[in-house]
Amino acid sequence: MSAALQVTAFGLALLSTLFLLLATCTDCWMVNSDDSLEVSHKCRGLWRECVTNMQDGVRTCDQYDSILAEHPVKIVVTRALMITADLLAGLALATLILGLDCIMFLKEDPCVKLKMCYGAGVILGTGSILGLIGSLWYAVDVYVERAMLVSHNIFLGVHYDFGWSCWLGMAGSTGCFVASVLLTCCLY
């Protein structure tokens, strides 16, 4: 039972970590939600902003000036939280691989392997909370920005909704959290 639970937690952690990495690297955290009048599809991400022409499919992207340049707080905070979550999830995966019962590393000392799985669960839980805070921070900021424009009857021609990268970050963080709960609470 313990080995099956470990492998399940590892599979979920691996998939969720990939989701977190994809969310951090991709550039569709915000998408324009008014496609009825638009001839282009706009995406804003943590690293650049891209526009895709709907007629011919040509995509152009504008990199943000510099990583160290002054950016909106939501981008800086989300970048920092997502990169930290990615690093912690990667560290947790490496620790979890060494702690799995099916791996021959430290096979003679099952207590140490169990502690490694528990430690991986704690690290994964910390990373998942940071990733979830980063994704939700960005999503709430997008919602507040949109609500402020609507409440002031300001129409700029385009308004943004959550993009698939934002949803991917939330899903990856939630999956990492579930894997963390499996490793820390259910393994014993």
Automatic annotation (TrEMBL):
<keyword id="KW-0965">Cell junction</keyword>
<dbReference type="InterPro" id="IPR017974">
    <property type="entry name" value="Claudin_CS"/>
</dbReference>
<dbReference type="GO" id="GO:0005923">
    <property type="term" value="C:bicellular tight junction"/>
</dbReference>
<feature type="signal peptide">
    <location>
        <begin position="1"/>
        <end position="28"/>
    </location>
</feature>
<keyword id="KW-0796">Tight junction</keyword>
<keyword id="KW-0732">Signal</keyword>
<feature type="transmembrane region" description="Helical">
    <location>
        <begin position="162"/>
        <end position="187"/>
    </location>
</feature>
<protein>
    <recommendedName>
        <fullName>Claudin</fullName>
    </recommendedName>
</protein>
<comment type="function">
    <text>Claudins function as major constituents of the tight junction complexes that regulate the permeability of epithelia.</text>
</comment>
<dbReference type="GO" id="GO:0005886">
    <property type="term" value="C:plasma membrane"/>
</dbReference>
<comment type="similarity">
    <text>Belongs to the claudin family.</text>
</comment>
<dbReference type="InterPro" id="IPR004031">
    <property type="entry name" value="PMP22/EMP/MP20/Claudin"/>
</dbReference>
<feature type="transmembrane region" description="Helical">
    <location>
        <begin position="118"/>
        <end position="140"/>
    </location>
</feature>
<dbReference type="GO" id="GO:0005198">
    <property type="term" value="F:structural molecule activity"/>
</dbReference>
<dbReference type="InterPro" id="IPR003927">
    <property type="entry name" value="Claudin16"/>
</dbReference>
<keyword id="KW-1133">Transmembrane helix</keyword>
<keyword id="KW-1003">Cell membrane</keyword>
<feature type="transmembrane region" description="Helical">
    <location>
        <begin position="87"/>
        <end position="106"/>
    </location>
</feature>
<keyword id="KW-0472">Membrane</keyword>
<keyword id="KW-0812">Transmembrane</keyword>
<dbReference type="InterPro" id="IPR006187">
    <property type="entry name" value="Claudin"/>
</dbReference>
<dbReference type="Pfam" id="PF00822">
    <property type="entry name" value="PMP22_Claudin"/>
</dbReference>
